[in-house]
């Protein structure tokens, strides 16, 4: 099986912002909430702490999800003549996906400088890394690797074809 590893393009503003958020949330969960939940009885203290920590823990997991993928994320493609396996490394809550070559109609390169979604339109004018390698699989367009330069996207498309 042949392997292609592509490092996720790091957004340093997002990395710094989410790192600060993780530090603040850790400080709140470990120091402030236990002090705020101290009561006369231990059972009330434990229940109060759990009730207070749940929303902060949810935000902590969200920040960790964003921070891990943005800072250390990699997309790994393993492929042979029969199938393509897509692995998102260092992304929480994701599993590998397998696509069979017999069901792939075409492999394309798409430019998302102007990205239209269901709810809005986003303009990515400050970057040259706006290309994605996509393929048509069972009449659905699937983005395999995002935010590449045109040369890198063309290279990956040629390897997969």
From TrEMBL:
Alphabetically ordered keywords of this record: Membrane, Transmembrane, Transmembrane helix
TM ranges: 12-36, 42-68
| The UniProt record lists the keyword Membrane | yes
Q: What is this protein called?
A: DUF304 domain-containing protein
- Species for this entry: Chryseobacterium daecheongense
